[in-house]
Amino acid sequence: MITPLTPNASAWLHTHLADSAQWVGDAVAVEMRYFAPLADAIIAAGFLFERDAFPN
User: Fold this and answer.
1) How confident is the model at residue 50 (pLDDT cuts 50, 70, 90)?
2) How many Å is the maximal CA-CA distance in the chain?
């Protein structure tokens, strides 16, 4: 699950993900095989991941 924490991050995800993306509330479900490429694209767009957001 990726939860955008800012309106800009949310807008970026809505713009760059397919219409068929599975949203659960404010978070989008991402299959593990797609996570790394999506994370790379998010970072390349200038966004960051919060460390506390990762499960232990």
Assistant:
1) confident
2) 31
From CA 25, how far away is CA 29, in angstroms rounded?
10
Tokens of 13: 């995800």
- The residue written with tokens 């990726």 in the block is 2
As a whole number of angstroms, the distance between CA 45 and CA 12 comes to 9
Q: Which residues fall within 8 angstroms of residue 6, CB to CB, at 6 or more apart?
A: none
DSSP 38: H
How far is Cα of residue 13 from the mean position of the Cα atoms in its chain?
6
Q: Can you give the pTM of this predicted structure? A: 0.82
